[in-house]
Design a protein that fits this description.
about 525 residues; two-stranded antiparallel ribbon; 8-stranded mixed β-sheet; 12 strands; alpha+beta
């Protein structure tokens, strides 16, 4: 009995030690005192209610409806097994080992202990980007007035005013308000501490003419996003230059829906005025820190010369994955994916580029081409929690694991014979393959990050799509800036929470004398 206890304890300790580098804690944004260093698999399982976990629930429901096709008798099953063996899928398992990760990870430059919030923000939005906003805004205002008549209240915007303009809008990420104009109101959402820096009339003039690219280039480019594409390219370059992610990364759509608490307070008229988002945003995110390394914006309703609008979802998401991972070739990175991206063809293509994958599979949402049908059906016999079956083709493993429902994983990043464990407070330890444990551990970090991160979105909601994308990417830049701040000596000098960091950034953009955050 004691020997079984020691064995269980060693399994638990081994599982914990594998993910010490994730540094999971409730203090991701500095709001819970000292870091608690919780282990990821205490709160997340294969049926997590995260973005990918939600798809896992869909996969469970879909796979449940697929079981009716299995009632064909042992003869049919035997023939099916033989066909699958001919295609290379076998029950015989082999160990696989990945080469070492061919990159260092972490910030690429050392920031001094005296670095301010503005210093970190300007790693992504430097002075030359702000100067470009000034130039393009003034050009657009001039052209607009030449066409529609002069605007007597307008004078050319200056760099200081543009920084203040950004500061006012960014302040809505810290102090939620129904409109950025509420700053100057006398109501509940007013903010007298910053309202005196610029008049409401001047702010509205800048808001009216604000542009990143005033006129369409003759070269064309991304038609729907031409007004923001140069900024997106610059931002993407700065993400790549300032931070190198860890070996494990996640491809997903971050949580960018509106705050449900705020929505419940809106009137029906206000809700009707809010247009449905016309774009989707995909990211490649470091699963150790939450740093967003790459972004991809897809316009849902814009036909393009590349034919993206004609692709089905699995094909589109496969193309998105290739775009997000185009800089990872040859590094032996491990990518975690949700059901909409997971597919055998994509994973095999990535393997040729030395990019390895571990993905949740759904019979309803995934491209299941080339996968053995016997593994995509639920077995008729009742199963116990933790029971699983694996088939292998080359280095690719297809795992069917049971935990109050069937979950399927496709991976070439983990040996199918290696054992892992999922730990739940109520249910105790649930055995699983190492790939399932790793998926749960890394996805739990992203779930926790997104839960915190969504609280600090810029709440200004313009109607124009390019402006929505702009303010969303500014939100991402600020969160990335905070991650770099927490990894720097500046954080050890002054420990600001994410909310305090946002307040400090707003005051520095507004050039207010007192830059200390509100306690």
């Amino acid at each position: 009995m004691a020997e079984c206890g020691r064995k269980g304890l060693s399994l638990l300790e081994a599982a914990r030690s594998r993910y010490e580098s994730l540094q999971i804690s409730d203090d991701v944004f500095g709001e819970s005192g000292d870091d608690s260093s919780e282990n990821p698999f205490y709160s997340t399982t294969g049926d997590s209610n995260s973005d990918n976990g939600g798809e896992a629930e869909d996969a469970r429901r879909a796979s449940g409806t697929a079981s009716s096709g299995a009632a064909g008798g042992s003869q049919q099953e035997q023939e099916e097994e033989e066909e699958e063996e001919e295609e290379g899928w076998r029950d015989t398992l082999k160990d696989i080992s990945l080469a070492q990760y061919k990159d260092t990870h972490g910030p690429t430059q050392k920031m001094p202990a005296t670095a301010t919030a503005m210093d970190f923000f300007q790693l992504f939005v430097p002075d030359n980007a702000i100067q470009n906003m000034v130039t393009q805004t003034n050009m657009y205002a001039k052209k607009y007035q030449e066409r529609f008549g002069s605007d007597e209240g307008w004078t050319n915007v200056t760099p200081a005013e543009m920084k203040a303009f950004l500061g006012f809008v960014i302040s809505t990420s810290v102090h939620r308000c129904e409109s950025v104009l509420s700053i100057w109101s006398s109501g509940f959402f007013s903010n007298r501490s910053i309202a005196l820096k610029m008049s409401q009339a001047r702010f509205e003039k800048i808001l009216k003419y604000f542009h990143i690219v005033a006129f369409r280039s003759s070269q064309g480019g991304n038609q729907g996003l031409y007004k923001i594409q140069p900024f997106l390219d610059s931002l993407q370059q700065s993400f790549s230059c300032t931070f190198r992610p860890s070996q494990t990364q996640v491809l997903h759509e971050p949580l960018i829906d509106e705050d449900p608490v705020f929505i419940t307070t809106c009137t029906e008229r206000e809700l009707r005025k809010r247009k449905k988002r016309k774009f989707s945003l995909w990211v490649r995110q470091c699963s150790s820190t939450g740093f967003i390394c790459q972004i991809y914006v897809h316009l849902k309703e814009a036909p393009g010369p590349d034919g993206l609008d004609t692709l089905k979802k699995p094909q589109l998401h496969s193309l998105v994955a290739k775009q997000l991972c185009q800089n990872l070739a040859g590094r032996n990175a491990i990518i975690f994916t949700g059901p909409s991206i997971t597919s055998l063809n994509l994973f095999q293509e990535f393997e040729k580029q030395e990019i390895y994958c571990c993905g949740l599979l759904s019979t309803r949402k995934s491209d299941c081409t080339g996968l053995p049908p016997s593994m995509l059906r639920n077995p008729e016999a009742p199963q116990q929690r933790g029971q699983y079956r694996t088939k292998m083709k080359g280095n690719m493993s297809l795992i069917s694991w049971y935990n109050k429902g069937n979950f399927r994983f496709l991976t070439n990043a983990y040996s199918p014979s290696k054992q892992g464990v999922i730990i739940k407070r109520k249910s105790g330890e649930i055995p699983c393959p190492l790939a399932v444990e790793a998926f749960a551990a890394h996805l739990s970090y992203i779930c926790k990050y997104d839960d915190k991160y969504s609280k600090y979105f810029i709440f200004h909601k313009p109607n124009k799509t390019w402006q929505q994308v702009f303010w969303l990417t500014i939100s991402i830049a600020i969160n990335n800036a905070y991650i770099l701040y927490k990894m720097s000596d500046a954080y050890h000098s002054k420990r600001y929470s994410r909310a305090q960091f946002g307040e400090r950034l707003v005051k520095e953009l507004l050039d207010l004398d007192d830059c200390s955050p509100t306690q």
